Amino acid sequence: MYKVMNYFLIWVLGSAASAVLAKQTFHGDKVFRAKLQTEGHVALIHKIKEAIKLDFWHPDTADRMVPHTEADFHVHSDQADSVQILLQQNSVPYEVLFHDLQEGIEAQLNNTKKSKRHSYTKYNTWEKIVEWTSKLTKKYPNLVQRIDIGKSVEGRPMYVLQVGNPDSATKAIFMDCGIHAREWISPAFCQWFVKELIKGKNNIRELVKSLTFYILPVFNIDGYVWTWTEDRMWRKNRSPSEDAKCVGTDLNRNFNISWCDIGSSDEPCSEIYCGAAAESEIETKNVASFIRSHVDSIKAYISFHSFSQMLLFPFSYTYELAPDHKELDEIAKGAVAELQGLYGTSYTYGPSASTIYPTAGSSDDWAYSLGIKYSFTFELRDEGKKGFLLPQSQIKATCQETTLAVAYIAKYVLDHST
Ligand SMILES: *[C@@H]1O[C@H](CO)[C@@H](O)[C@H](O)[C@H]1NC(C)=O
Ligand SMILES: *[C@@H]1O[C@H](CO)[C@@H](O)[C@H](O)[C@H]1NC(C)=O
Ligand SMILES: [Zn+2]
């Protein structure tokens, strides 16, 4: 009986038309957290996914679902009730993280008074971030330089901020934020961290005397702009595929390390599309070329994503342990302890493949393969309650605690790298 009911509901789901609008809104859309207990639960979500578009928040693709984990996914309003009935009928324990996604989107920007200026405690548009980079270089000419490392697909300049004393520093750390467009807390952190290096506490400011920081505040600029203007839930870059069927490559699957293997897809419409070739995307190529040309000085690579509250290190593309596993694990342990010490935010840490899920072609593995031993990826707040829609009211605390972890890593790298 249940089986018949399932088929019927899944058929109803598949036949619901979904209109494509210019500026997307999300009224009545729901985000579910399914607590998968059996293979049957996993199979059910796969069946639903075959019938309709499920926007996976965590893991980042349905293929990574396994029993005894949770799956967070976003469902269009037309189909939300049917999906909820299917979960109930099949006894899949679940929570509704968002009853109305549009409300969550509006609530995210809803704590501070409106102001046109750049702010470290707000989400800033790309235009404001560009203006901010230009102001910084004028205000701190001896400390901050702006490097144009190339253009995005749509022609926007990719600016890396070089923070440090160019005369004395010989070791460098490369950091990037916003590879995935919808993870807004990530660019917010890169901006915050630049501020800390310039006018933070002494122990942070001291780092720039002997280290150079290369900070790319927004990696996937076109995607980021798209999340402000068209679709808040966009993840990939904005390059059309060759057959123009779908737009966008997952830039964190496009690096030249075990490219398009595990945890990525060669299907252009997939959210984890690896692109036409390794470094096929101009954004990936620009970053990879910059890092290659500074590889002698770059001792650490740190990439910022959200969400999950994790500190990850190589490998992503295999369950094998990295040659430097023990040391990386010790550093991660120390960094996470620093972070937790401020507000008690709990982080897990470990190699990406076993701690989150395996992915090939990711930036951290690629940097590691280049000989940059200290390679880390942060998954910032939260653990899914707000997910990509972390309210602005949490920017400050998130950035403060993360700064402590990054400073810990930077200090370690300064003292231990050769
Ligand atoms: C925005 O904040 C105001 C005041 O706190 C509140 O009344 C309103 O419901 C909020 N709007 C949303 C969409 O959360
Ligand atoms: C990717 O790496 C392989 C092996 O190191 C190399 O032969 C190839 O040229 C690289 N491809 C690109 C696009 O850099
Ligand atoms: Zn991400």
Automatic annotation (TrEMBL):
Signal peptide: 1-22
Source species, domain of life: Eukaryota
Protein keywords: Carboxypeptidase, Disulfide bond, Hydrolase, Metal-binding, Metalloprotease, Protease, Signal, Zinc
InterPro entries: CARBOXYPEPT_ZN_1, CARBOXYPEPT_ZN_2, M14A-like_propep, M14A_act_pep, Peptidase_M14
Known cofactor(s): Zn(2+)
SMART domains: Zn_pept
SUPFAM superfamilies according to UniProt: Protease propeptides/inhibitors (SSF54897), Zn-dependent exopeptidases (SSF53187)
Gene Ontology biological process terms, A to Z: proteolysis
Cellular-component GO terms for this entry: extracellular space
Keyword Glycoprotein in annotation: no
GO MF annotations, alphabetized: metallocarboxypeptidase activity; zinc ion binding
Keyword Secreted part of the UniProt annotation: no
Active site: E379
PANTHER family the UniProt entry points to: CARBOXYPEPTIDASE A3 (PTHR11705:SF150), PROTEASE FAMILY M14 CARBOXYPEPTIDASE A,B (PTHR11705)
Name of protein: Carboxypeptidase A3
Organism: Xenopus tropicalis (Western clawed frog)
Gene: cpa3
